[in-house]
């Protein structure tokens, strides 16, 4: 087992512990557990940074070329961006939704082959890491938007039905959750747009064409339109609250399908197999 | 020394009795001094609020002290003792400690977790300190009670969540809007509850207040009170889009605000959420409004429901609070027990003996060629030194054990010689101003 794989496994364990901590914290409504969960998560994130760095040093490429690497990178971006949000909004509860997601990504990642791939020379371009990094950061931001959306729907339901569970007292206000939705959109949308553009430029240098309508590109474009519609609705027609929350959740479902589904069910240039020239 | 409490509360006495036995907060010196003159009372404190009267004292003879305090309470207020006997309770020892800890943690309050009682006890303690009717025991006892109350407030959620309808409205608004300082509120009609809730909203930062009423003068009067603006009742709907929170309590027999109108208003607000509070009976706002996205309509029953749910949450927390109280009772009780003279003298001698043995071992280790006789005389000499040193302190401790200063000496000796830590230990005692004043 190489160092980075060992580090990866420890990181995964920490995320697991964090998830358990959150779970207990949410069910028992003990704030102490959720506070500890945040501490654990910060520790896990630092270790995750080291994991990625050591992988990078070992392979020489930014570690996003194989399924294993990109899942780990995705989870890292997710936790990192959540922690940024935590600094801004202090919403501990958001982590209860984000951490399990990161954990699932890590678990799937740990099942994928871990050897560092030899990158297909055709794809070995400066645009490759730019494209992938932007895309994953965008994914992570939209994941936050979706989590905030779920929390919004829960909170809204309780406020409307006037039946309050203990969760009600711990969730942030509707305004906060909605403004998180908007913030995510204003950060995530440019990231995603730039991710798609940089991908097109890279495709042009690799294959000699900007857009090839492979399934991933198509799905990414559909998702992009979805988010564009939401942003437009927010800015002009005053879409917000419930509708924006639902949109963010659907949008993220599309993102996940674009990421997993396309690789699994459909084939195209974006399947990892083609990256490594096997 | 023992702690005794004689008192009555909303649980044992109706208001007619409570008001007869209350002490005026402006004239506490006389009752405090009279209380201290009673036989068997070494230190005294009087807590008097509209819900309870508590006479708390430190004494050597708890039974006698309780009898004296019961008589004092009746005589001071010129009430025949047999008339109030059934309303009084009395506690001593651990029970008394538990009682005051529970009272100051608001576990015995009419509204569980209400914050005033702690402040009232602090005020009562302030008087006792001012008139010097409390000493070592009650000082320590009250500080302990304050720190227990603080622990309960910070470690349990007993005081969180509103338990009044008007405050529940503010809390709900916070769950919708987060910040209230840039929000506006409209008051339609003038009910007392409406006014109270409006006051809460303004206190929580709401900056814009619109008031409307069928009688424009009344609207103007209320608006002036909140530095708000009065608007004519005929076109209040046109101004609805400007505010985030609406409170209605008109006497109108029908709905004054329907679903259609609200739909329009929300559209004009670009769907920014609105919180509508309908306190009127019969209701002013069509309940269908709650079905609209981004509109949250609460009527009086809904708010009552929230209050009930919050009370239930508090009740759940009360269990945790009781556990904290139980923990702290043990500690304080032990400290009180440690103030006994005999165990202190024994502990002091034990400490010295320990030091003597250690030093002897060291010395004998260095001087290996001492004869058995020489050893014996060194041992005898060191023993004699200790006896001489301890003679005077021991004599004083024994002599003063029946005075009021006895505990002070015991406490000093325990502190100076660091005798096995009496619980309720010094580190936990904070100066009074250090303890955050409750609401």
Q: Termini separation of chain B (Å)?
A: 34 Å
Report the helical percentage of chain A. Answer: over 70%
The residue-averaged pLDDT of chain B reads 86
- Low-confidence segments of chain A, given as residue ranges, are none
End-to-end separation of chain A: 23 Å
Structural class of the secondary elements of chain A? mainly alpha
Provide the residue-averaged pLDDT of chain A: 82
Protein model, in words:
- The complex is a heterodimer of chains A (278) and B (439).
- Chain A has 278 residues and is an all-alpha fold.
- In chain A, 81% of the residues lie in helices and 0% in strands.
- Chain A is built from 10 helices and no strands.
- Chain A has helices at 3-28, 31-59, 67-89, 92-111, 127-161, 166-170, 174-207, 215-237, 241-265, 272-275.
- In chain A, helix 3 (67-89) packs antiparallel against helix 4 (92-111) and helix 7 runs parallel beside helix 9 (241-265).
- The radius of gyration of chain A is 19 Å and the shape is globular.
- The two termini of chain A are 23 Å apart.
- With 439 residues, chain B is of the alpha/beta class.
- In chain B, the strands form 2 sheets. A 6-stranded parallel sheet of chain B has the order 7-6-5-8-9-10.
- Chain B is elongated and about 110 Å long.
- At the A-B interface, helix 5, helix 6, helix 7 and helix 9 of A face helix 8 and helix 13 of B.
């Amino acid at each position: 087992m190489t160092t980075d794989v060992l580090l990866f496994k420890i990181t995964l364990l920490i995320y697991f512990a964090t998830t358990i901590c959150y779970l207990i914290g949410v069910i028992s409504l003990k704030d102490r557990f959720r506070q500890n969960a945040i501490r654990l998560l910060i520790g896990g994130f630092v270790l995750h940074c080291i994991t990625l760095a050591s992988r990078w040093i070992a392979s020489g490429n930014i570690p996003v070329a194989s399924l294993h690497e990109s899942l780990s990178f995705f989870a890292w971006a997710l936790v990192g961006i959540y922690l940024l949000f935590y600094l801004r909004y202090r919403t501990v509860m958001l982590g209860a939704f984000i951490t399990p997601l990161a954990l699932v990504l890590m678990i799937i990642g740990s099942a994928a082959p871990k050897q560092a791939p030899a990158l297909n020379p055709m794809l070995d371009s400066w645009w490759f890491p730019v494209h992938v990094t932007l895309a994953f950061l965008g994914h992570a931001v939209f994941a936050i938007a979706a989590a905030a959306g779920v929390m919004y729907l829960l909170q809204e339901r309780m406020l409307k039905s006037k039946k309050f569970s203990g969760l009600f007292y711990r969730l942030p206000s509707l305004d906060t959750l909605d403004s998180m939705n908007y913030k995510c959109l204003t950060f995530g949308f440019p990231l995603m747009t730039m991710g798609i553009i940089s991908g097109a430029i890279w495709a042009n240098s690799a294959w000699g064409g900007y857009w090839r309508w492979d399934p991933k590109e198509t799905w990414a474009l559909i998702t992009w339109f979805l988010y564009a519609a939401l942003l437009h609705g927010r800015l002009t027609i005053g879409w917000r609250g419930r509708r924006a929350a639902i949109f963010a959740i659907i949008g993220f479902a599309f993102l996940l399908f674009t990421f997993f589904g396309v690789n699994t069910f459909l084939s195209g240039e974006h399947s990892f197999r083609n990256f490594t020239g096997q | 020394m023992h702690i005794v409490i004689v008192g009555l509360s909303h649980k044992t006495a109706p208001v007619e009795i409570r008001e007869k036995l209350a002490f005026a907060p402006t004239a506490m010196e006389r009752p405090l001094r009279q209380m201290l003159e009673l036989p068997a009372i070494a230190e005294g404190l009087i807590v008097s609020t509209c819900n309870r009267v508590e006479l708390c004292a430190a004494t050597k003879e708890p039974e006698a002290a309780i009898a004296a305090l019961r008589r004092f309470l009746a005589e001071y207020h010129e009430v025949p003792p047999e008339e109030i006997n059934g309303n009084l309770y009395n506690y001593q020892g651990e029970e008394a400690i538990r009682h005051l800890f529970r009272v100051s943690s608001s576990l015995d309050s009419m509204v569980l977790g209400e914050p005033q009682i702690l402040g009232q006890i602090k005020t009562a303690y302030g008087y006792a300190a001012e008139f010097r009717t409390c000493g070592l025991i009650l000082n320590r006892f009250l500080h302990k009670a304050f720190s227990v109350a603080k622990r309960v407030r910070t470690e349990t959620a007993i005081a969180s969540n509103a338990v009044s309808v008007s405050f529940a409205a503010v809390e709900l608004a916070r769950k919708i809007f987060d910040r209230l300082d840039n929000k506006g509120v409209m008051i339609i009609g003038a009910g007392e509850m409406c006014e109270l809730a409006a006051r809460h909203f303004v206190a929580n930062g709401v900056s814009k207040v619109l008031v409307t009423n069928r009688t424009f003068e009344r609207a103007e009067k209320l608006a002036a009170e909140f530095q708000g603006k009065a608007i004519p009742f005929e076109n209040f709907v046109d101004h609805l889009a400007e505010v985030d929170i609406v409170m209605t309590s008109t006497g109108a027999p029908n709905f004054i605000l329907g679903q259609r109108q609200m739909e329009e208003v929300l559209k004009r607000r670009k769907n920014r959420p609105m919180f509508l509070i309908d306190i009127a009976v019969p209701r002013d706002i069509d309940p269908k409004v709650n079905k609209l996205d981004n509109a949250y309509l609460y009527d009086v029953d809904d708010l009552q429901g929230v209050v009930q749910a919050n009370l239930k949450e508090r009740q759940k927390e009360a269990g945790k609070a009781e556990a904290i109280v139980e923990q702290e009772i043990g500690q304080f009780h032990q400290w009180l027990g440690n103030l006994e003279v005999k165990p202190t003298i024994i502990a002091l001698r034990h400490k010295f003996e320990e030091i003597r043995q250690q030093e002897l071992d060291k010395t004998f280790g260095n001087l290996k060629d001492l004869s058995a006789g020489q050893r014996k005389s060194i041992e005898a000499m060191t023993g004699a030194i200790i006896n001489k040193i301890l003679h005077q302190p021991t004599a004083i401790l024994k002599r003063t054990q029946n005075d009021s200063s006895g505990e002070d000496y015991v406490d000093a000796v325990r502190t100076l010689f660091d005798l096995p830590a009496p619980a309720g230990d010094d580190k936990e005692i904070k100066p009074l101003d250090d303890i955050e004043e409750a609401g």
